[in-house]
User: Fold these one by one.
Assistant:
Number 1:
Amino acid sequence: VPTGSGAMLNAICKGFEELQSVSLLDDLSSMHMHCAQPHGCAPIVDAFDKNSDKVIPVEQPDTVAKSLAIGDPGDGRYVLKRLKQYNGIAKETNDKEILDAILLLAKTEGIFTEPAGGVSISVLKKMVEEGKIDKDETTVCYVTGNGLKATESIMTVLKKPQVMQADVAKISAVIG
């Protein structure tokens, strides 16, 4: 789950628990919940890595994932509890990896996400590469926002479009 304040991860866990309480889900014991944060604003990841229950705020968040740049996550301590409860981990990813993940999702699935979605895709990719998630395992990756909300960051890595005259022969020559 892409995590800024931590509220969404907590709400997702609560939702699953409520579904179980009304018998719409059988068992949550095999569920794992993971926290994904951008490098430059990863106070929950820092606390998790130190095995601490205290989240130390980031004074000046610096990341392309502006919607996750919450230096003092109000629900951070609850996220740490949820990670323990659901055998999860907290992991960070850098800006280049975030932008690469946005492009990967667009190319492979046709989904244009904002950088927060790139954070979750990038962390998922890392976890599969590290063997923390099996590539054949059923996994839900939260992609929570449309890329049109934050085009400035992705524009730095996109190829510039080729400008040409509106001529069928010239366009056909380029696109094949």
Number 2:
Amino acid sequence: MKIIIVGIGKVGYTLAKHLSAEGNDVAVIDKSQEAADKGGDSLDIMCLRGSGLSTRALLDAGVRETDLIIATTSSDEINMLCCLTAKRLGAKHTVARIRDPEYAHEVSVLKQELGLDMIINPELEAANEIGRVLRFPTAINVETFAARKVELVAFRVVKGDKIVGKNLAGIMNDIRFPILFCTAVRGEEVIIPDGNFVPAEGDLMYIAGKPSAITDFFKYEGKYQKQVKTAVIVGGGRIAYYLGLGMSRLGMKIKIIEQSKRRCQELDELLPDCIIIHGDGTDEQILEEEHLEAAGAVVTLTGRDEENLLTALYASRLRVPKVIAKINRGNYEGIIKEMGVDSIISPKNVTAAQIIRYVRALRNTIGSNVETLHKIADGRAEALEFVARESTWNLGVPFKDIRFKKNFLVAAIVRNGSIIIPTGNDCIRTKDNVIVISRSSNVNDLNDVFEA
């Protein structure tokens, strides 16, 4: 596909990197010559200096032949106008990053009036992801599929866990819960396990199943924690706003610590059910005064990775049950995990995964088959949801009689509202929602998991 990305900041760069790696013809427009040069040199793609509102820049980038334009500048208004202009010049599809909460309730109107095919709000998506973890604090990460009927949950194996030293076949025979061990991360290795795999201390394991079955498994392991009742958010930006709004509506007691007095006043008006504290969230005295150690969870959401890292480590040292840190730089993720903070949120990666799903749906010649896409295992594997169609191969054939490609696993099937954790005797039927785990990063269709 021919794709133009306008704006090569954090989100734009991440998108350009992933989309070009998947074989798309990517061009970038940025008003900064330095940013354009950096993108061109490191990604080996065409980068042009110019404004996303410039007809000349869009034409030079090939907008008339473009399948998709993605506007990711820091200005919502520029992104919207850029997409409108590109559509009139011939771009087939448009995606705009729109972050301002004032536009959040106008999505349908904006899409209709401006001809936008997709609107993405990175901060809202990040807040939703954090919210899922706060509702299931035992987990390091929670992804949902099939209208939340199926969850994919990551957890760390620790010394004393009942599954340590047993192979998965034996574990499944012992527990008899309808779950499936889908992926294991051991050091730098990502494994799609079979029944002979033996979990070890330190492994990051992903399991799939309906929420009640996953809860039963964690109770069996002695890991179960109830939903967080109180949370302290350090940093009062847009993610904090969306998170505070959503969690307070669920009855969670939220306290937000923000350094800007003006922003505190804004949040106080916007979030009447939250407690807003004016102060430096990295100041140990402030954190002691606000009894950080008594919180059910701490979420660090300042604009600086270093501050988020230090505050998260401090909260972990106080043994706060759940600590989540926003980190934008990938090179910090390994450090923070080694120090005991497993739950990391990256808005740019959340956004990239959403848009990549959309791109793959567009690229799929038989229709929008990719329903959901989540990057897992630090981006080294994917969890995808497909809808089986008449053109899907091997319909009605038992799994034991199908040749699957290496490094793929069917984790769950949702059929008429019922969840099936597949065995060799199960099969795929039309209209099934099929959740697949893949170590490949270029899966566009359910047929990609089968040997021809």
Number 3:
Amino acid sequence: MPNGSNFLHTQDSTWFTRFNKMFVYGISFVLLANTVPVSDTHAAVPASVDHFRMADTLQQQGHTEKALAELRKATTTDPDDYLNYVKMAGVLAELGRYREAISAYETSIRLDSQDPMIFFSIGALAEQLGNFEKAESAYLAGLRKNPQYVYGHKNLARVQTQLGKVNEAIPNYQKFLANYTKQYDARRDLANLLLYANREEEAAREYRRLKHEDPKRFSEHLNFARALTRSNSAELALQELQQAMLKEGDNADLLEASANAHEALGQTSSAVQKYRQALSQNPEKVEIHLKLADLHLQKKQPDQAIEAYQAYLNKKPDDTQVRHALANTYLAQKQYPKAITTYKQVLQQLATVPSPQAGMADPVQQAKTQEKVVEVTKQLAYAYQVNGSLDDAIQLYEALLKDTASKGQTPDPQIKNNLAIAYHKAGKLDKAVALYQQTLQAKPNDPALRNDLTSALMALGDKYYTEKEYLQAEKYYLHALSIAPDSNVAPRLGLANVYYILQKADSAYTPRAVEAYERVLVQDPQNVLARLYRARLNLLHREYQSALPQLQQLAVNHPKNLEVQLSLGEAYASLGDPALAALTYEKALKLDPKNIRLHLAAGDAWQQLGDFAKAQKSYEQARLLAPKNHIVLYNLGVVYQRQEKLKEAEQAYQQAFAQNNTFLEALFALATVQEKQQRFQEALGTYQQYAQKAAGQSSSSSNADYLKQAESRISLLKQKMP
């Protein structure tokens, strides 16, 4: 009887892991999202939900055993909540405790859940344990609830084969293949089962399909070949040739004819072999090299095709057509320097064609030659372009367009488009935009041209955005939107980002930024940047309760996006929860331990919590990464001062002010540290220096407060002086 080790191919060892994870994350997390509120952190919820949430967090952090312990608490607290058992089953499966996982799934079924995917999970776990009877029962139960889940039929067929239920397995494979016709392994298994069941005609049909799908692997079914139809004229030809070879020997003509027959049958390897034998018999049959080149290209063996072309050209170096084919092969294989050299050789050969004025050439042939020159020049220009030799490409494209214009001919739109692309890549964006617009006028409905023009306009907008010329950037983003208002979110997103920057200084831009991000989300609801910066707008305008659920959802969907994690931490901090903020930053730092902003933010959060040692550690990490950053140095001074490390604080403040002598907060803080060390003369001088500099700066409420304090300290210190 067939079994998994000797009749069917053994399943991939990673299959179960992938299958199980689908259920762990697909069932547990989805059900959690649908049943547990996440936006209201102060709502009263059952204790079991807290355990569930903690388990979810621990599992994501890789603490699977701890997650399991929390889930056991959840099931003890609320033994009637099936969701706890679904989650527990997933965790147990992840730990390799499959029997316990099955038990947990079965408990969830008894309590409430009738999700067919749970039955399929039980089947997968039972199959992993070698309990094929239980796996079959589970798969059947799942299919009764969801008969449209075609992979369930494949899984059921597999375990039925293990159980020897061939006639039951066959229709399940057929149902699966009715939906997935290109599943080679499943079709091979079905063919094997049909043959085992003595249903040879059906088996033959399946083997024939397998042969058509992958002729190279048909040798696996050689012992079944009698069931397939093979007779055709090429085979008869081979028989005749074999008889002739018995009589005449392996001469080059017979070998070449045999190769032709093999080629007609699709037996390319045999054809190549016979062609090579023919060449060894008669090296002067140079045309065979071209046949070999064609065969190698069919077999996707470009290196061998190139060797065949070169062998031919060694014998016939003046064959321009073959040299051109060689150049095209180099280009297709991205061997751009060789393609460039070979195209140049082709052009040199074409230039030797006699001119009609000399009375030595047919004008019609000369016209064809000129067409060939233009074709090869275009290809040479393109080879330069993809090789990064943009100036050479631009020169050739411009020469082609100039020649066309001098003859009063319509310019080739492909040349204009390629030139525009070359301009674009070379950073000549204004020229690229102008040329794209010209080509678009000729083909206004060409989506590719519209995309290229939009891309160039976007590049100009991005250029000005990077240079902080935001109004210029706005102009080009708006132009890009006018070309493709609905097909591309990038221009609208660029425009939204411009308004986001501008609204920081001018609140009149805030509604524009909001509208732009909202319109991006209408086109692309899952656009991460638009969702993130829409939430950040809420943060900037202190709409924390609106921002928080958006950022929490983004963090779940994009846990490795540092901007999302940073913004979520800011939201927690703004809502007065520095502990969650600190944990969020620390989690993000595991992804990018060299992110200065995250270290600074984490330090601020720890400082808010009063954990100055951890704050110091965060700021010191930031200083290692940016030793001259005055903000980092100042914050480090603050946390030193709070820990009474006055000498270290003084040094940090001095360094901060040395890096930026307009950063007067550092100077004021330095004076306070000097005063605290009872170095009153130095403190007085520093306060006076601060007051002098602050008086010359723009007034603000914070500056005014600091200045008032400095003047008060100066007055008091003068009284202490002898």
